[in-house]
Design a protein that fits this description.
The structure holds two protein chains of two kinds.
Chain A lengths: L6 E10 L2 E11 L3 E6 L6 H8 L7 E6 L14 E4 L11 H11 L4 H10 L15 H13 L5 E5 L7 H16 L3 E6 L2 H4 L5 E6 L2 E7 H7 L4 E5 L3 H8 L5 E4 L4 E5 L3 H10 L6 E5 L3 H8 L3 H10 L5
Parallel strand pairs in A: 3-7, 3-8, 5-6, 6-7
Antiparallel strand pairs in A: 1-2, 1-4, 8-9, 10-12, 10-13, 11-12
Chain B lengths: L1 H11 L2 H21 L14 E2 L5 E4 L1 E26 L13 E3 L6 E7 L8 E7 L4 E5 L3 E4 L11 E8 L2 E7 L6 E7 L6 E9 L3 E3 L5 E3 L1 E7 L3 E6 L7 E5 L16 E5 L2 E6 L3 E3 L9 E2 L1 H4 L3 H22 L2 H7 L3 H37 L3 E2 L4 H29 L2 H11 L1 H8 L5 H10 L32 H25 L3
Parallel strand pairs in B: 21-22
Antiparallel strand pairs in B: 1-2, 2-20, 3-4, 3-9, 3-12, 3-15, 3-16, 3-17, 5-6, 5-12, 6-7, 7-8, 9-10, 10-11, 13-14, 15-19, 18-19
The chains are: A alpha/beta, B alpha+beta.
Chain lengths: 313, 506
């Protein structure tokens, strides 16, 4: 990793009143790939990003952008583009003027504003008041702001929120191309599914610290303990036949069983031996979602409680 | 510079703020039109006030026993007495009752000698005079006043006065015996005035009472002069001395007590002269009467100030409310610089609005005054310019205060209320006559409302008696001193805002 790109966080701690929002958050966002930043609401994702931007001061630890603290940057938007809250707009200001003041603050020409508006597909709405924008359009405007300074690093908080399927597809393509250009891209989401097929790397967080920092491929391989679905007209007989093999059998429907802990071939052998009729047996690959749930097994239990406490800002 | 450019872009791209600023200007002017809608019911008072050599409005009303002097020359005379008649204030319960009189002189009643450029109102002059309570004075061109011998004259201890004209210079002397002379001062007369009017004069400004918001009542004075000695080339006009009432009997400085009138008699070798009025700058207060001042024309300022306060507060609280401050600080992490840029933008806008509103209001107000038959208290151009630019600075400082309180309090309603309570409220309380003079003056010394003092054009002179209090439109602090008090408030608020902004999580 070159010193002048990427985002580096080391031992970030931050307490809001009773809540330890960040509890030693440490990870690195490397250039050339999309890093998914996943965790339940309240896990500290937004706070982490606010600390990186110098908006919140950490109680301990530091965050560096291209090797320097964000608050020391001369033209920060040309070092790190960010989208924290797409709703943060002056409603009466037009989309173009919203980007224009940001451009002025970095000494960028107005021409650059028109370029990014074109890039995010808002050129036609440039002179409309941002207050009348749909959530999807606001997300595009927020992404335009992040792209404005053509930065080597980007940080987007929940960019998929409020987007229709076409918008989600567009962002995925955009993120992939930004990473392909060698940029460091950090994208947060509380839904692992949104990052399917786009993240190359995952930082999974819970309770203000990193639970897993791993490549997507390695993660999926780690949860490879396959799960088999069996469709049979005699589920109870089949369950009987599989007892004593060490397999865990669950009735998942009137004619389906979920089986784990036993390879598909062994199941077929057993059922055949016991002459249990079955219509279909399928082994399926673990999804990112399942891998995530496996990692954050206990995190899910406090999710609702913490979210209700309003930890995520 | 970039940050400033960004903040300016922010400001000009929100239509509500731009309209608010323009509206603040229009509202100020509109308020003036509403405030000057009524017409003067006494058209006889509508005559324009004379302006002195310095440009300010003056009273030039006195009784003058004069003759012409061409070229250099001098006049010397002893004054042996200064007495007077005061009108009883209506309902004062004295023996005479309303309409009655008592004997007495007002402190700045004058009996002395005068060298005056011409008999025209407001012309240049130099005078040596005995006064009712301030000893011998040398005064010139209405605004200048120097002390000479103390005490009052009597037949046993007269006050000798002398004025000597040499070219464009007039020198004043006084003496207790007519032999040993002391120079009191010199004054300049325009070189162009070859023939000037020289002689004896008597004036008596009205008696002023501070009670009940201030009131005044007529006074007349009589001076007893000894033998007049002249030197130089005097005009050969038949009879020599001529008596003349200069100016109105009813200037803003006072008028003749019932039963008295201006005049002169010779008594042996000397003269007795009776007069009223004053040779002095016009000041505010009970004697001013139905005249408009520049302050009257700037009365709409507080409306514009309230509107600009709303705009300046919103300029930052809108960012808190919309969560936009995060983006602002992400683009400009140097928080102090960001706040300074914001302050510069609102201050510039407010200055432009204030100065433009004042620059429009003053001539417009003068037109209105003429249409509604009110006199206008003219002030020197420099004073008027100071009031115009000062109005801009007043609004600029208030806008910075508003912005800073917006950062400190983070809520529009609270911040706007705080600014209005700190500026407009004390101003209205102090000048609305709801408070006694003491507390009103302290409000105008300590609160940000002190800044309104920069609009004051009413002059203040030690040699003119009036009620120098808020009830007469007088601020306790000087124009720049008052503005400095507001400036200190704004600077403190801005410093507090900077500290909080740096310390707080955005």
């Amino acid at each position: 990793m070159r010193d002048d790109v990427g985002i580096e966080l080391a031992g970030l701690r931050k307490r809001f009143g009773e809540t330890q929002a960040l509890d030693g958050m440490t990870f690195t966002v490397r250039p050339g790939r999309v890093t998914g930043f996943v965790g339940p609401n309240g896990a500290g994702k937004s706070t982490t990003m606010r600390v990186v931007l110098g908006l919140d001061t950490p109680d301990a630890g530091h965050a560096l952008v291209g090797g320097r603290s964000y608050r020391s940057l001369r033209s920060p938007l040309t070092r790190l583009g960010s989208l924290l809250d797409a709703g943060a707009l002056q409603p009466s200001r037009t989309a173009r003027n919203h980007l224009l003041w940001l451009a002025r603050s970095q000494g960028l020409p107005a021409r650059r504003v028109d370029q990014v508006l074109e890039q995010v597909g808002l050129a036609g709405a440039a002179r409309r008041r941002a207050g009348g924008f749909s959530l999807g359009m606001r997300q595009r405007l927020g992404i335009a702001a992040a792209l404005l300074g053509d930065p080597p690093a980007l940080m987007l908080d929940e960019p998929f929120n409020g987007l229709d399927p076409e918008g989600i597809r567009w962002i995925r393509g955009l993120l992939a191309s930004l990473a392909a250009e060698g940029r460091a891209v950090l994208v947060s989401s509380h839904l692992m599914g949104e990052l399917e097929d786009v993240a190359d790397h995952l930082v999974v967080v819970g309770r203000g610290r990193v639970v897993a920092d791993t490549g997507v491929r390695e993660l999926l391989a780690g949860v490879a303990a396959g799960r088999v679905t069996l469709r049979t007209s005699a589920p109870l007989v089949a369950a009987e036949a599989l007892s004593g093999t060490g397999a865990a059998v669950q009735v998942t429907g009137p004619e389906t069983l979920g089986i784990t802990g036993l390879p598909g071939e062994a199941i077929v052998a057993r059922l055949t031996a016991a002459a249990v009729p079955f219509a279909e047996l399928s082994t399926h690959r673990a999804t990112l979602e399942e891998a995530y749930l496996a990692l954050t097994g206990d995190a899910v239990q406090y999710r609702s409680a913490d979210a209700a406490a309003g930890v995520e800002r | 510079m970039r940050t400033l450019h960004a903040e300016w872009t922010k400001f000009r791209t929100v239509r509500g703020w731009v309209l608010g600023a323009v509206g603040a200007m229009l509202a100020s002017v509109l308020f003036l039109l509403v405030g000057t809608a009524s017409s003067n019911e006494h058209p006889q008072r509508a005559t324009a006030l004379s302006a002195g050599p310095g440009g300010g409005a003056v009273n030039d009303s006195f009784y003058f026993v004069h003759r012409a002097l061409s070229g250099d020359g001098g006049i010397t005379v002893p004054v042996t007495a200064l007495t007077g008649v005061l009108a009883d204030p209506a309902g004062a319960g004295t023996a005479g009752g309303p309409g009655g009189t008592t004997s007495g002189v007002t402190p700045w009643s004058k009996a002395g000698i005068l060298v005056k450029q011409s008999l025209g109102q407001g012309s240049s002059y130099a005078a040596m005079t005995v006064t009712g309570a301030h000893g011998v004075r040398m005064q010139d061109d209405f605004t200048h006043d120097r002390a000479g011998l103390p005490g009052s004259p009597s037949t046993a201890e007269p006050r000798w006065l002398r004025l000597v004209r040499t070219g464009g210079t007039v020198t004043g002397y006084d003496s207790t015996d007519g032999e040993r002379w002391t120079e009191v001062g010199t004054a300049r007369l325009p070189e162009s005035a070859t023939t000037v009017q020289v002689g004896l004069f008597v004036a008596a400004p009205a008696a002023v009472r501070a009670s009940g918001g201030g009131s005044s009542s007529p006074a007349t004075a009589t001076g007893s002069f000894g033998r007049v000695t002249l030197s130089g080339s005097w005009g050969q006009a038949a009879g020599g001395w001529q008596g003349l009432q200069v100016g109105d009997d009813a200037g803003t400085s006072g008028s003749y007590t019932p039963g008295t009138s201006g005049g002169w008699t010779t008594t042996g070798e000397g003269f007795t002269v009776t007069g009223a009025g004053d040779i002095a700058p016009v000041v505010g207060g009970p004697a001013l009467g139905p005249a408009f001042t520049v302050e009257t024309f700037l009365v709409g300022t507080f409306v514009g100030l309230i509107m600009l306060t709303v705009v300046a507060v919103q300029f930052v609280t809108a960012e808190y409310r919309r969560g936009l401050l995060g983006q602002t600080l992400a683009s400009t992490p140097h928080r102090g610089r960001m706040l300074l840029a914001k302050a510069a933008v609102v201050a510039t806008v407010a200055f432009a609005v204030g100065a433009a509103a004042a620059a429009v209001s003053i001539p417009l107000g003068e037109l209105r005054a003429r249409a509604t038959h009110f006199a206008v208290l003219t002030v020197p151009t420099a004073v008027q310019t100071r009031a115009v630019l000062g109005t801009g600075l007043l609004l600029a400082a208030t806008a910075v205060l508003s912005l800073a309180l917006g950062v400190v309090l983070r809520r529009s309603v609270t911040a706007i209320t705080a600014v209005v309570a700190a500026t407009v409220l004390p101003y209205l309380l102090a000048f609305g006559g709801m408070l006694p003079s003491g507390p009103a003056e302290w409000l105008l010394r300590l609160t940000p409302a002190a800044g309104f003092a920069v609009q004051q054009t009413l002059p203040r002179y030690d040699q003119v008696l009036t009620v120098y209090a808020p009830s007469s439109g007088y601020f306790p602090l000087s124009p720049w001193g008052g503005l400095a008090v507001l400036g200190v408030w704004s600077a403190l608020a801005l410093a507090a805002a900077t500290v909080l902004l740096r310390r707080r999580d955005a």
